[in-house]
Fold:
Amino acid sequence: MRIIAGTHRGRPILPPKGDQTTRPITDRVKENLFNRLASLGMLDASPAWNVLDIFSGTGTMGLEALSRGAAHCTFVDQDRDAVACLTENLGTLGLTERSHIVHGSALGGYWLASIPDGSVRLAFVDPPYKMVEDDDTRPQVLSLVGRLLPTLEEGGLAVVRTPERIELPEVAGYDGPAQAVYGKMRLHFYQSPLPDEA
Structure:
């Protein structure tokens, strides 16, 4: 794993030992995703923008965003080994001061109270596949996406990753989701509505 572009281009990202608890996104998919985000104006430097990396694992998405100009990223994950590896990655890259790690359940949502409304441009949501495949837990993921909406800027995006065969429904308050399939994965783009043009 490595950072694709930006100030830390080419720098390696350490995976957790054994790499059994995370499903890192491939470099090809990550590059395609960030190219799409750039074409949508999501990576523009002004004004300063913030990111959430939820179910972050070792933080590959948030680290890529920080390399490409994000001012700050909040990472959320409950796996101890992944968080330890993320902490090491942030220190190695000199990004500790531009980040905050929440070591706990993403679905609990208590951590959302510390995220100011309208302060986030991009939220990456990458739950375990079994969580979105299960009819009992999928609604919890969709509920989390709904609770993210107030934190997003106007036009901000929540990007949710699922297996290719899982198509998530609309979530109240969002536009979309637009979707893109890369091999065996599907990305869903939920957008906070832009203000109506006069």
Notes: The helical segments are 27-39, 60-67, 80-93, 129-133, 138-148.
